[in-house]
Amino acid sequence: MKKIGIIGAGSMGRGIAQQASISGHEVVLVEIQEKTLNDAFAFIQKMINRFAEKGKMDNTEAVASIGRIYCSTYLSSLEKCDLVIEAVVENLELKKSIFNKVESIVSADCILASNTSSLSITNIAGSLRHPERMIGIHFFNPVPLMKLVEIIPAIQTKSEYVEDCKSMMVGWGKYPVVAKDTPGFIVNKVARPFYSEALRIYDEGIASIEDIDHAMTDLGGFRMGPFTLMDYIGNDVNYAVTESVFEAFYYDPRYKPSFTQKRLSEAGWLGRKSGRGYYTYVDGKPQKTQEEFHYQKSTFQRILAMLINEAADTMHMGIASRDDIDLAVTKGVNYPKGLLQWADEIGVGLVVNQLDELYHHYREDRYRCSGLLRTIAERQSTFYDA
Ligand SMILES: NC(=O)c1ccc[n+]([C@@H]2O[C@H](COP(=O)([O-])OP(=O)(O)OC[C@H]3O[C@@H](n4cnc5c(N)ncnc54)[C@H](O)[C@@H]3O)[C@@H](O)[C@H]2O)c1
């Protein structure tokens, strides 16, 4: 795949364009708004030049990379592309109508990909004349730095296209993982309890925001605690993902959102970007108010058990393989280790006991233990050595 088209030059489109050009592809970047397109090109130039200044790339290579990018406001410029990646706003009808137009411009063997975070690839493919060429290629932000890429075949996708996209991503220095076309794919599904269980513990008054954050960083080795991370992502963005996964899974109580986060989002307390969220920010830094921390091991254990349960269920439902699930959380959300590997280290039986205790205490389906986790515990087996 020599020539790559990218539609939308917002935060994701410009990152994908930068990555594709430094990986040696000719790039056609199409954006509807001329100003955004100019800003995106200037941004990519700045980022590539910065790479060269830091010695990560030589100057000739930097100039050549920038020269490989062609910017346009017309979809017709995508005519000679071998792959087109769409990164416009998250709107199903808009994406479908764009792909419909693109299909009449590109050649019959051009692969069409969407960078959607939450929409069904199968649904988008369903509106195409050649649905077998549609695939999801889900990058993480910022694209040139984040190593994980989720590849999502629609049920109609030709299997060789999955392999083609995987090898291309390896060539770009990425770690591709394959996910079934289900809500949240891998990362946005498996990581939900990191936020939701932390919120639940806080909502019940079991621990403070700062204690929960410290339990996860100090005891768990996570880079950021859940509340610091939600503030970093933006409470509006994080709440919207939680709500969409909850709805998409037919209101499964496992993914139930929290009113605390909804209210923060409604108040415009979005986190770091608005100067206030769970924390107040001064010069972009969260201001901690507690002088001492009294975090409990049980806080960390409870959140970790819920994360492991979600990872196990994702494997059980055939959404992704064991290795891809663990790779997704270490490379996509920087967890200190894979959740299924972590389960083995703690002992799967112990995780099952923790979940059963929560289930018996609350009598809520939210805490039901994954069938796979229970089977492995009953066999006194492990995820990795079995
Ligand atoms: N931002 C993230 O962290 C992130 C991460 C992974 C995936 N995604 C997904 O990537 C996609 C893009 O997200 P984003 O954050 O870059 O959005 P964004 O709003 O920053 O950029 C979208 C761009 O698409 C342009 N656009 C809209 N209609 C167009 C059209 N008809 N033709 C050409 N350009 C058009 C807009 O002008 C805008 O510049 C979404 O589907 C989102 O879910 C986002």
- Helical amount among residues, as a percent range? 40-55%
Across the major sheet, the strand order is: 3-2-1-4-5-6-7-8
| SS-derived structural category | alpha/beta
Shape: globular
Average pLDDT works out at: 96
What is the number of beta strands? 10
CATH topology of the largest domain: N-(1-d-carboxylethyl)-l-norvaline Dehydrogenase, domain 2
Identify the bound ligands: nicotinamide-adenine-dinucleotide
**Shape-level CATH architecture of the largest domain:** Orthogonal Bundle
Strand and helix map with partners:
Blueprint: E1 3-7, H1 11-22, E2 26-30, H2 34-53, H3 59-67, E3 69-72, E4 83-86, H4 92-103, E5 111-114, H5 121-126, E6 134-139, E7 148-153, H6 159-171, E8 175-178, H7 187-190, H8 192-203, H9 209-219, H10 226-233, H11 235-248, H12 259-267, E9 280-282, E10 285-287, H13 297-316, H14 322-332, H15 339-346, H16 348-362, H17 371-378
Observed structural traits:
two-stranded antiparallel ribbon, 386 residues, 17 helices, 2 domains, Rossmann fold, globular, 10 strands, alpha/beta, N-(1-d-carboxylethyl)-l-norvaline Dehydrogenase, domain 2, binds nicotinamide-adenine-dinucleotide, 50% helix
Structure explained in plain terms:
This protein has 386 residues and is an alpha/beta fold. It folds into two domains: 3-178, Rossmann fold, CATH 3.40.50; 186-386, Orthogonal Bundle (N-(1-d-carboxylethyl)-l-norvaline Dehydrogenase, domain 2), CATH 1.10.1040.50. It has 17 helices and ten strands. It has helices spanning 11-22, 34-53, 59-67, 92-103, 121-126, 159-171, 187-190, 192-203, 209-219, 226-233, 235-248, 259-267, 297-316, 322-332, 339-346, 348-362, 371-378, and strands at 3-7, 26-30, 69-72, 83-86, 111-114, 134-139, 148-153, 175-178, 280-282, 285-287. An eight-stranded mixed beta sheet has the order 3-2-1-4-5-6-7-8, sandwiched between helices. Helix 1 links the parallel strand 1 (3-7) and strand 2. The two termini are 39 Å apart. The site of nicotinamide-adenine-dinucleotide (NAD) has 24 residues, from helix 1 and strand 6. Nicotinamide-adenine-dinucleotide binds at residues 7-13, 30-33, 36, 87-90, 98, 115-117, 138-141.
